[in-house]
Structures are given as structure tokens and as C-alpha cells.
What does this fold into?
Amino acid sequence: MIALNSSDFSRPSFISVLERVYFSEIDQAFLIWGALTLMIFSLAQFSTLGWGTQAVLDAALTGAGIAATSGLTWAIATIAKLRWVIFLWAGLMSAGSVATAYGIFYGNPLILSHLCLLWLGLCAIGYGAMAVGMRSRCFTAAFLVHLSAIVCFGHTSSCQFFSSGLVMALTLFFFSIVSWDMQTSDAT
It folds into this structure.
């Protein structure tokens, strides 16, 4: 006779499932940037905070994101000879923060009316550079998605911040869970 008890049929708990999920440092960097992007662009779309307050908060979040993800990925990027990627994105995000702050604090109408296109463009530049530098089809696709969003969102004003944030964040979340391709410089 076989004796069974209820513990033989228990389902795995949520915590035990989470313990089996592993995100590399690069995956974690994508997740961090995805969450920050969604937060920043959701604030811009739905918050009642003033633009100046949002600009300061967004710059602080962007700076924290640059510091956290650079520290998280530096060792891997060094081994893979891809530190230029960290410098590229840190430069693009810093430039975007400065341009956004300038547009808001100095009331530049050209920048203010094109903030979403600016950020989608910066991301397109980053993904395009990675596509070429890493010879990656995945980053080429991300580049094309962001260019397509620029074309689409350039003709609409409804929920432009949230829609732009979704494009950027979902791309980052996608890269955190999917294996993406690249060829190193020593590959033929």
C-alpha cells in the first residue's frame, strides 16, 4: 500500500517560482530602463505635476538609471569589448535629459512640441548604432520599430507620451526576456 499526503500534490508557491527565474545583469539593466521609461512617460502623460518638477524628477531618475545600469553591466561589457555601448547610451540619455530640461525651463516651443519624437529618435540612434556595431538583427528591428513610431506619432497628439513610453519600455522588456543576436568583431 502507498501512503500519500496532501504535500505530495502541492503546487509550487509564487516565491519558489520566482527563485527559479534568473535575469542576467544585462537583462536586469533592460528591466530597470523599461520600468524607468514607463514611469517617466506615464508621469508626463497622466501626472498633474508641473513640467519643471517633472523635468527635475525625470533627470534624477535618468541619472540613477545610468549609474545603476552602468555599474551592473560594466564587467560584462568589458569582457565582451562593448563598453562603447554603455558610453553611447549614457551619452544619449544625458543629452536627452539636457535637451528636455532646456526645452522646459527656457520654454523652447520646438523642443516642447517634439519631446516624444526626440526620445524615440535618441533610442533609434542607440539601437541603430548597436545594430551596426554588434551586427545584430534584433537591434536593427528595434531601430526600425522606433523609426516607425516616430512616423506614426508625428501625426497624432493623443496620448503621445504614454504611447511613446510604451514603445520604448516594451522594447526594453522584450530584450530582457529574449535572446538577441550579435557578432563580435573577431567573428567572420
User: Anything to note?
Assistant: The chain has a mean pLDDT of 87.
